[in-house]
Design a protein that fits this description.
Class_I_gatase-like; alpha/beta; 212 residues; two-stranded antiparallel ribbon; PuuD-like; 7 helices
Length: 212
């Protein structure tokens, strides 16, 4: 049985705009009712937060990682630049950060990494909607050896940013989760997976506990 190690801790977390905001709201309402969630849209509020989460959304503007747009969809440069500024402020202030899907890609780009703009055409590896990932390092310590995860993205990590440790990979070798002290990124959507598998509470507890 899973133990809720943060069941009585009062915190305020900042959440960037997410395509799965309803799942995120349900997650905290069900498992962390003592935590106050606040949507943030400025780096100036970071000092008020105990932790910050960036969720899913459209593709990132390729110019942010030094590329022309070859296959990125629905990009919003103004939003991307604003959210990158927030993440840079979060990392500088050492506020625990969790990135989900787009948010994980933002973490990699903020630290100098790059993306595949389309996995199928550029890498030759289309991603199924559900697939296996294998954990390593701190990922294995926290989440076990492997898990079935969901996948709604057509992009992925190409060059991993300096200082990030890969802690999960897909069977084709594509990075699926990465980490540095104080920050975690996962390419899938644990806020949805948690409805059927409480193991993912360990990921959120890890983040809320400081992501050490």
């Amino acid at each position: 049985m899973y133990t809720f190690i943060l069941s009585s801790m009062k915190m305020q977390i900042g959440i960037l705009e997410s395509s799965r905001k309803d799942d995120i709201r349900d997650l905290f309402g069900t498992h962390y009712p003592q935590i106050t969630c606040r949507v943030i849209n400025s780096h100036l509020t970071i000092g008020e937060m105990d932790a910050v989460l960036a969720g899913g959304g459209p593709d990132l503007t390729p110019s942010l990682y030094g590329q022309e747009n070859r296959a990125s969809r629905g990009v919003n440069p103004k939003r991307d630049m604003g959210e990158l500024a927030i993440i840079e402020a979060v990392l500088a202030a050492r506020v625990p950060f969790l990135g989900l899907c787009r948010g994980a890609q933002l973490l990699n780009v903020a630290l100098g990494g790059t993306l595949w703009q389309d996995l199928e055409t550029e890498r030759g590896s289309p991603h199924p909607e559900r697939h296996l990932v294998r954990f390593s390092g701190r990922g294995a310590q926290r989440l076990g050896d492997e898990a079935q995860v969901n996948s709604t993205h057509h992009q992925g990590i190409d060059r991993v940013a300096s200082g990030l440790e890969i802690i999960a990979t897909a069977e084709d070798g594509l990075p699926e989760a990465w980490y540095r002290p104080g920050a975690i990124g996962v390419q899938f959507h644990p806020e949805t997976l948690i409805k059927d598998d409480l193991r993912w509470l360990q990921l959120f507890d890890w983040w809320l506990g400081g992501a050490a």
